[in-house]
Amino acid sequence: MELHQLRYLVAVADLGSFTAAAAHLHVSQSGVSAQIAKLEHEVGHRLLDRRGRTVSVTAAGHEVLPHARAALASIATIAAVSDELSGVVRGSLRLGTVIGCTIPGYLAGFAAFRRTHPGVRISVVEGNSDLLIDDLATGRLDVALVTHTAPLPDAVTGLTVIREPLAVVVPRGHPWADRGAVTCAELVDVTVLSLPPGTGVRSALTSTCAAARVEVTPAVAAHSPDSVLALVELGSGVGVLTAAMAAGRDTLAAIPVEDSVETSLSLAVSSTPSAAARALTTALTKELATDR
Fold first, then answer.
1. pTM over 0.85
2. 150 versus 238: which is more confidently predicted?
3. How confident is the model at residue 84 (pLDDT cuts 50, 70, 90)?
């Protein structure tokens, strides 16, 4: 059994095909297939089910995969410890962010890290927070900026940058613009624009309305706050976001949602970060704390 065989197995399982895994690993597809076949022979079980162009993980594969990931993580940790002993920060990082993130502190922290550690390769993934948190907990990401309403899982630690309730966003001339608050019951009868399921805002909206014993289903679930705000400005409906997301839009007003569940924006990191992940977290934390 060789480490590269475990690396190939994890890549195929994560990417769903031998072709994608080979491209990601910069090796030939036949090489990936041959090495995984050797691994399966070694363990005595089929780990991947190959059916045409699709690949799925077998029951035995699901048993082996966590240990393969742990072995690879241990090797990465040894390399990171070696670098730390030498005073070197290098390697690669996988950073996740909520879609369309333009928070000044986040961008400034990222830029500061790149200036200080130009040799670190960073891949950035944008996505819904639920998926980012899951990827962080399972080791597919190193650091992530996420929104959430529930506490982060035990495998993840985080710094909360912003914690605030929901707000209804409307044009300045809207009848609700000068209101002190808007209820969930009032949202039932209007066109609501918000973010998709899996985001902190959407989770907060669902929980808040459930507590009020009403159901509000957004007519449009845009993938970024800027898209929601642009649609509100064009008169397509009322937005449900947070006041911070609407900051700087002089044409819009943000009115608190009554009895809203709070949504948090947090900088989260895995429980066993590499030296590079810790350095990035430090740079981001410094700048994000300035924004608070």
1. no
2. 238
3. low
Mean pLDDT computed over every residue of the chain: 88
Tokens of 227: 């898209």
Give the C-alpha separation, 132 to 147, whole Å: 10
Average pLDDT of span 116-141: 87
